[in-house]
Design brief:
Elements lengths: L1 H20 L12 H7 L12 H23 L23 H20 L1 E2 L1 H11 L4 H16 L4 E2 L7
Helix pairs in contact: 4-5, 4-6
Length: 166
């Protein structure tokens, strides 16, 4: 259908060109007849009221001053406000783990080590880890997670189930 439209359009354009070449007109004569020229004239309406340029300039200056003052206020550094205490700083080590936490940390690391040896991480491994993880210190938790994700990213662990590994 498209080639037909293109061909038809080209044929009409060529026909118009040929028809226009056959029109006889005097050199210097207008292209449109006088009746057509009268219809093409247009007029611009006069402004309804005179514009007070002094008032307009004053309003523009006020707007610019306000905007520049706002930008300056945004760019100036604000005085430091007291921040709420975020808790223990990461630079400070955790207190020494209790004997129970040491034992739980060893069990958690053993779960990851055993899974790494077998080459797969099962839903049962995940459930064992989740049961122990809440009682670990922050450092123990990070150590076990580091070992787990290092093995997972290295391809030493394959997930045996869909969904989140932890």
């Amino acid at each position: 259908m498209r080639p037909f439209i293109v061909i038809a359009g080209l044929a009409l354009a060529a026909g118009g060109f040929v028809a226009g070449r056959n029109v006889k007109r005097e050199p210097g004569a207008p292209l449109l007849p006088a009746s057509s020229q009268a219809q093409t004239e247009c007029s611009v309406p006069a402004p309804a009221a005179p514009i007070d340029t002094a008032r307009l300039s004053a309003e523009l200056r006020d707007m610019l001053r306000q905007e520049l003052a706002r930008k300056k206020a945004e760019s100036e550094p604000r005085p430091a406000q007291p921040q709420p205490d975020p808790g223990p700083s990461r630079a400070q080590p955790d207190p020494a783990p209790s004997r129970e936490q040491i034992h739980l940390g060893e069990q958690a690391m053993a779960i990851v080590t055993e899974a790494r040896t077998q080459g797969h991480w099962s839903a049962e491994d995940r459930d064992k880890w989740l049961a122990l993880s809440s009682d670990l210190t922050r450092d123990q938790h990070e150590d076990v997670l580091r070992a787990f994700f290092t093995a997972l990213n290295a391809g030493e662990l394959k997930l045996d189930f869909p969904g989140s590994p932890l």
